[in-house]
Amino acid sequence: MRDADSKLKRVVITGIGAITPIGSSRAGLWDGVLSGKSAVKRVDRFDPSGFRSQVAAQIDDFDPMDYMEAQRARRLDRYSQFALAAAGQAVTDAGLCLSSRDAEHTGVYLGSALGGLAFAEQQHSVFEAEGIRAVNNILALTVFGSASSCNVAMEMGVFGPNQTNANSCASGAVAIGEAFNVIRLGRARVMLAGGVESPLAPLTFGAFDVIHAISSNSNGNPAVASRPFDAHRDGFVMSEGGAVLVLEE
Fold first, then answer.
1. CA 118, 121, 123, 129 torsion: positive or negative?
2. pLDDT class for 1, splitting at 50, 70, 90?
């Protein structure tokens, strides 16, 4: 056993990227944590009045063209935009220069419970109202969960291990753990790993509302809705965002 353990690689985190409701980038996220202010508020992406829960944490200042070219932004939905933005931040934060010689030794593992489902929901409404020719032609390339990791890999020009798991609330943690093992076992030298969600659309949101999974007792005071360690908590608060780490051997 000791002999086998001695052959395992050490793994370190060298970069952090984050797109969140309380702040973006490593510094922006930490400033948001230190401020102690909640980003939870009444949903305004759609009319939530028909739901038990009417609050969520939205990102209201995200502009994809701060992170990518306009043509690329137009070809991605919000879910993949978050992934690409957070991954780019993480690579910059790590001071990582990915060259063609690194391509086969660098991979992307992400996690997402819902993937591009919210965008698919929006396009289904377009389909019902206007027919198939009105549907955005990027739909087939964005709705599946692995669109996030695939788009990151294509943008970064890397060809190592690539996958997006859908293990619900644990998906981001699972992605990081699996990426850790990939490097530890010598199958890659660098991995971009984390989680991404963009679930704020009526049916997607409502699916969790009807099973009483999301908080509804704080609609009048959204700032206190998210309290995971409170004995009187009544559910989680839905949010959107993404965070990616750079893991290196």
1. negative
2. very low
